Structures are given as structure tokens and as C-alpha cells.
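Kindly inspect both lines:
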Amino acid sequence: MRKIPGKIMEKKAKPAILRGGLLPYGGGGTKGRRPAPLRPGQGPGLPPQTEPPGRIPPGLAAGLFALLFALGCSTAPKGPVETRTLRNAGALQLELANRETDRGNYEGALELLAEARRLAFNADDTALIVRAYLSLGNAYSYLGRADEASASWDSAAAEAGQAGDGELLAICEIHRERRRLLDGGSAAALSVRDRVQAALGRIKANPLDQALAWTVTGLAEKELRRFAEAEAALKKALALHGSYPEQAAYDWYLIASARSVAGNYDAALEALEEALACDRRAENSYGLGKDWLARGDVLSKAGRPAEAEAAWRHAAEIFASAGLAAEAETAAQRGNNSGQ
């Protein structure tokens, strides 16, 4: 989901970190996940998703779900091994859900998140519970279900507060501020930036949570039209995303947005080339389509209409090949309209 305030390209795209949930299982204090996030659930140690959206890799599925079924049906107290299995399964569900959110499949993400939340409570893992609620809030927010999003974020903060975990509370605050920035734009940007930087100072354990704070800071700086500062903040997020190509792609996408709004079209195109390279490594068709769509927008703004039309048509082909009909239609219409 790439959703950004303002125009890049002048448009809003589905968020990723605005692309998704962003927070890892593991960071935040008492118990861990994506080691840090940017989304509530992904991270080292968890297998990459190579199966269709929403499916756990087959090598893991049979044994894991048989065990989870047995554990879930048992009323006996859970031992250390069972609890660890539940926690790991919940972290995996959260990872898969965040991938679906990042790729625009919000309804699919909600189904996965319901199970991740159940497993988190079954294991009584505070950090995983909080991150599941944060991811739920993100998915609901992207679907326009504001009340449910707010309730999910409130639940995350309540769980973190009950545990007395200041780091998890800081992560909750960053998520809310990100949403406030997307809703309020430049009017909210200054206070969002300052609050997120204050929260960042309370995050010590998880580099991905720190990256999320820098991403939101960069978006706020962009809204304030402080483009150099925006790029500097986004590059700090990028440095923390080294082994996560899908997140790095989104960082480059946002850097391209800041450069485009500043009128630096050639530099914006260079950033989009970096985003494309990262999304290709991640095999993220949704991200690739968004990158090509943005490339068309920048080329159009730069006065290169033929190249812009070709880029939009290419985006449409990518979306169509991935079964993303609405996005394919949007890209195709942009290409068709360019010649009118």
C-alpha cells in the first residue's frame, strides 16, 4: 500500500509505511518481532513468503498447523515449548499479514491478522499483541474504516500501557502520528515531526521501529516543503532497511516523491530506478506497478509525454498480470488520457 501525502507525482498511493503495517515482532521491550519494525510483524528469522498471498509455505504448513490445532484445542496449561510455538506461529501470521497490507490486499491481511491476534493472546506475548493491533489499525485505516482503526490503535496502546512498556507505547504513538499526518497534511506536519522525534528517543531495541520514525519524519518534512531535510530523514530509514528490499523500495519511492515535488525530476527518476531494483529483488508486483506509475507521473511533469505514456502502460501490464484489476484500469486510463 503506497500512500503518501501530497503529490509525487501528484497523487496519493497506497501506504507503506505507508505501505503497510510496519513493526517487527521482537522489538519494543518485553518480548520480541520484524526486528524492529516498520510494520508490526516481519523480520529476521521468519521465512520469506514464496507462496501466493495468505498462504504459509507448504514445508511449514502441515506440521505447524497440526500442532497449532492440537494446542488450540487443549485446555491444559501451555508449557514453554508450546508457548514458543504459538508465539512463532503468531509472528509468522503477522509477517504474512503485513506483506499483504504492503501489497494492497487489505481484506486478506485482516483475515491473517485475526489469527495472528488470537495466537498472540494464546501465547500471552505483549509485544506480539501490540503489533497485531497496530497492524489491524493500519489495515482498517487503508480501507477507510476509521473507527475500527482507532479502536485497534487504542487497544495497542492499552496493552503497552498495562505492561508498562514505554518503548511499545512510543511505537504506538508513531503509528497514530503517521495517520494524523496523512489526514492533516501540512497543517499537522510540524507537530507530527516533533512528536515522532520525541518518541524516537524512547526506542532503543528495534532498528525497524526507528526506521518507521524516520520515515514519518521525512514525510512531515516534505509536507513542510523542507525537501533536503525530508530526503535526509528518509535516507536514515533506508540505512536501517538494508536487508529488507521491499521496505528499501518504499524508501526510494518516497525519496523520489520529495525530489519530484521539489522539481528535481531527473533525480526523482534516479530514485525510482532504485525503487524498481529493490522491488524486483522482493518480487513485489504491486510495488513494481506503483513504481512504474510514479515514473510516468514524473516523466509527464518533466514534459516527456511519450515516455510517460509508455511507463503508465507498462504499469498497467504489471498490475493486470498480478490480478490487480482496479490498479491496472487506473494506470491504463492515465496512459489513454495522456494523448488527449
Remarks:
- Confidence is low (pLDDT under 50) at residues 3-68.
- The chain has two domains: 1-224, 243-340.
